[in-house]
Amino acid sequence: MPTNLLSTSVATGFGGIVQEYLWNWENQQLRVVYETLGKGSPLLLLPSFSSVSTRSEVGELAKLLAPNFQVVAIDWPGFGESSRPSLDYRPEIYQHFLEDFVKAVFNTPITAIAAGHAASYVLKLAVKQVAFSKIVLLAPTWRGPLPTMGASQQIAGIVRGLVRSPILGQALYKLNTTQSFLSFMYRRHVFTDAAKITPSFIEQKWETTQQPGARFASAAFVTGNLDAVREQSDFLELVQSLTVPLMVVIGESSPPKSREEMNALVALPGVRSVVIPGSLGLHEEYPAVVLEAVQDFLFSP
User: Fold this and answer.
1) 119, 125 in Cβ contact below 8 A?
2) Do residues 263 and 254 touch, judged by C-beta distance below 8 A?
3) CA proximity to 136, closest of 152, 116, 150
4) Residue 274 is inside which H or E element, if any?
5) Which residues, listed in sequence order, are joined to residue 28 by a DSSP beta bridge?
6) What is the pLDDT of residue 12?
7) Cα–Cα dist 91/208, whole Å
8) How far apart are CA 268 and CA 250, in angstroms?
9) 3-class secondary structure per residue, 128-164
10) Which residues of the chain have pLDDT under 70?
11) Which of 112, 152, 239, 296 has the highest local Cβ count within 10 Å?
12) How many other CB atoms are there within 10 angstroms of residue 105's CB atom?
């Protein structure tokens, strides 16, 4: 197993054993940080993609699952404490990474719980090979923010190029990751309880965005360059091709366009679903409610 023990991080850890997985992509070694907590059958917990993506967003959920599962939560390449090189971040990177990570760390099909944009990558791997025994998708999305707002691939590409540029890109990125802007975005479509969006909470999120190299993967996500599928029909086809049980958790306050996509997903035959309080960040805002909603599914044979 290609892992090395690290000291637990107070900033982003949730009390588990913090390790690194050294992964090679196109002759470049990336250090991917992951954390393991609990004992029992293995469960992979994947945070959503976002400018503030870290494994800490699923930390409370991990602690609730730990009495019954050995929970493994990751920082995606380009996010959190993992390496953030100036790669051309695109779906192939994450698809290959997820496949290699699962193969290296687990030796049996596992339960996967994936939030937001991680959904497509889990579904693609599940269709390709028997990697998972059960899948739970939390507020699943497949289309990045700019494409969701109607931006063409050409416009999104121009924006991505600008953010990747040395001086102008750093300035643009800083403008879009100020604490006031992060607070606005959380209030708009991530959390539903404004009381939870405290100054200290936003400061922690802001610190994540200010790490060296943070703008590269973030820009790829925002502009749709991490969209593993390009059409709703492709996303739904992945679900229809599944051979393992699937459950979807939807936040009742999800943004209208995202809710439409989720409704189309859960309308498919064989997909179990539940609607709970929250929006796109329901896994972080309401972890206990999420666990209560999915525990029967997780523990059923």
Assistant:
1) no
2) no
3) 116
4) strand 271-276
5) 25
6) 61
7) 22
8) 15
9) HCCCEEEEEEECCCCCCHHHHCCCCHHHHHHHHHHHH
10) 1-12
11) 112
12) 19
